[in-house]
Amino acid sequence: PFAAQKGSLEHGAHIAVGTPGRIQDHLTRGTLILTGVNTLVLDEADRMLDMGFLDVITEIIAETPKARQTLLFSATYPDLITKMCRTILQEPVTVSVEAEHHDTVIEQTFYQVKNQQRKNALLGLFEHYQPETALVFCHTKIQCDEVARYLQEHQIEALAIHGDLEQRERDQVLVRFTNHSCPVLVATDLAARGLDIKSLQAVINFELPHDPEIYVHRIGRTGRAGETGIALSLFTEQEHLRVKAIETFQNKPSRCDTGESLQPNPGFTLQAPMVTIQLDSGRKNKIRPSDLLGALTGDAGLSGSQIGKIDIFDISSYVAVERSALSQVLKYFTNGKVKGRSVRARKII
């Protein structure tokens, strides 16, 4: 909230982090002064420009001293970024980071479908490949919610992540996806930035991006650390030029198929092997993963193999347990204690 931010800034700050819109708001109200800035960082620069923040960013930069260090980070490097660099950077040094994977370990397949068949074809992809973990990319927040809801209605566990989620909601979504209690995450490009997802089996493009560099960035989330991965893309006849652009960018032909092979079985389901339990105690209660593991394998009677990832936050904790052990865990926490303290537990849905 603005009032809380204003209060924090009144005490001074070494580092201020914010969206362009919120920083501009503070500048307008006089609650943030940038005349003493010595380092300016523009993170996710390409996405901010895609969202139309160029004018706002320019106004913010004008409030900073000319004698400063400027760092600009961008996953892609479109022409607009190049033009912006000429304006705000002086004698810049470019640092490029090589991708962590080689596209040879990623099996890429493109499926041509009619637009009205896109969601049904997506179901077919899940039935055919049955990935344990999959990241589905959509263009908009609304589309993310629609696709996640459609998958849920067809017995495929899925969660959406985008910029409209509150931090608490975002944390819970990521906890469930990374601890294998939800197999499918539906995301926008912006929301997926910065996600550290290990052993991601599949990346699915519900729609192809306009920029082939964004496509390569998307699929690079699978096939990491020596593992293989699959990249599956749906496209319509009108989007065929996007496939050609990707072929040119990667300098290799694409493997294309028709969506006719993606006819889902009405009885197919995709369910995670684990479920997530939220506990109302965390770091501030001096709870550690070993405390929860000890309680569950001791008094609760679970075996170590029935317990998955444990995440500790300030005032809450999350534990992944085998689906078959859910009722046993919830029953234990109705009276059971952790470090001598009663703890309330509930299943995260």
Describe, in short, the structure shown.
With 349 residues, the protein is α/β, with parallel strands linked by helices.
| Total domain modules | 3
Using the coordinates above, name the CATH class of the largest domain. Answer: Alpha Beta
Helix content: 25-40%
Describe the strand arrangement of the main beta sheet, using strand numbers.
Answer: 5-6-4-7-8-3-9
Structural class: alpha/beta
Count of alpha/pi helices? 13
Order of secondary-structure elements: HHEHHEHEHEHEHEHEHEHEEHEEHEEE
Average pLDDT works out at: 90
For the termini, the CA-CA separation is 27 Å
Enumerate the spans where pLDDT stays under 50 for 5 or more consecutive residues: none
Q: At CATH's second level, what is the architecture of the largest domain? A: 3-Layer(aba) Sandwich
> What name goes with the CATH superfamily of the largest domain?
P-loop containing nucleotide triphosphate hydrolases
What is the CATH topology descriptor of the largest domain? Rossmann fold
Please describe what this structure looks like.
Strands 5-6-4-7-8-3-9 form a seven-stranded parallel β-sheet, with helices on both faces. Strands 11-12-10-15 form a four-stranded antiparallel β-sheet, with helices on both faces. Helix 2 crosses helix 4 and helix 10 crosses helix 11. The protein has 349 residues and is α/β, with parallel strands linked by helices. The chain folds into three domains: 87 residues, P-loop containing nucleotide triphosphate hydrolases (Rossmann fold, 3-Layer(aba) Sandwich); 159 residues, Rossmann fold (3-Layer(aba) Sandwich), CATH 3.40.50.300; 74 residues, RRM (RNA recognition motif) domain (Alpha-Beta Plaits, 2-Layer Sandwich), CATH 3.30.70. It is built from 13 helices and 15 strands. Strand 5, helix 8 and strand 6 form a beta-alpha-beta unit. The model has no long low-confidence stretch (mean pLDDT 90). The chain is flat. The longest helix is centred in the middle third of the chain and has 13 residues.
